[in-house]
Amino acid sequence: MNSKRPLQDEDDSDASGPKRPRTREPFDIVSHVGHGDYTIAWICALPLELTASRAMLDEAHPSLPNLEGDDNTYVLGRIHRHNVVMTGLGQYGTNDAATVATNLKRSFPNIRATLMVGIGGGAPSQADLNLGDVVVGTRVMHYDMGKVVESGRFQETAVAKSPSPLLNSAVSNLRSKHAAHQSGDWMASLLKSRLPTLSHPGERHPDRLFLASY
């Protein structure tokens, strides 16, 4: 007879009784969203803009490796049913923005729309705008393309371009929804709950609005 004691589970105290099968906890299966599942690119020029953008995510996703040569740093997540890739510019300018967008589309090949999101640098004086309003552009203008005329004034020569039909259709739908249901109160409460440090400072520190001619 073999004098060696057979291997048993540690909790089998009675060797003569029936052996209980070893129980194992099932592996936790984590399903990661892959590069090809992201369809919306979201680019911000300033860190503060990216901070506010991150608060809009309904769900945050773990980071994914970049392709070789892509030096961008990404924030991944989901807004409603859209998987979104967010990133910021290393330097402010159109050339850097083009480089960031090109590398982003290399690492995430199924991007359908690219949005430039941030604080507006200017607005038409005829528009009825208030601090905190969200402005959605319907045309893209290369603002620094032009020439200096005899009077010393800078004359723009760029031709305005329309966004893709996908974005134009989305903007039309958004306009219709906004006209039917004003969403200002909902947006204000959302930002207040997710970004408490950026809430309104109160009546003792009112907003300072300046005339367009300032």
TrEMBL record:
In what residue span(s) does the Nucleoside phosphorylase domain sit? 39-172
Out of the domains of life, which is the source? Eukaryota
- Gene3D superfamilies xrefs: Nucleoside phosphorylase domain
A Pfam family it matches: PNP_UDP_1
Write one Gene Ontology MF term: catalytic activity
Fetch the InterPro entries from UniProt. Answer: NLR-like (IPR053137), Nucleoside_phosphorylase_d (IPR000845), Nucleoside_phosphorylase_sf (IPR035994)
Q: Locate the region Disordered.
A: 1-26
Single GO BP term: nucleoside metabolic process
Q: What is this protein called?
A: Nucleoside phosphorylase domain-containing protein
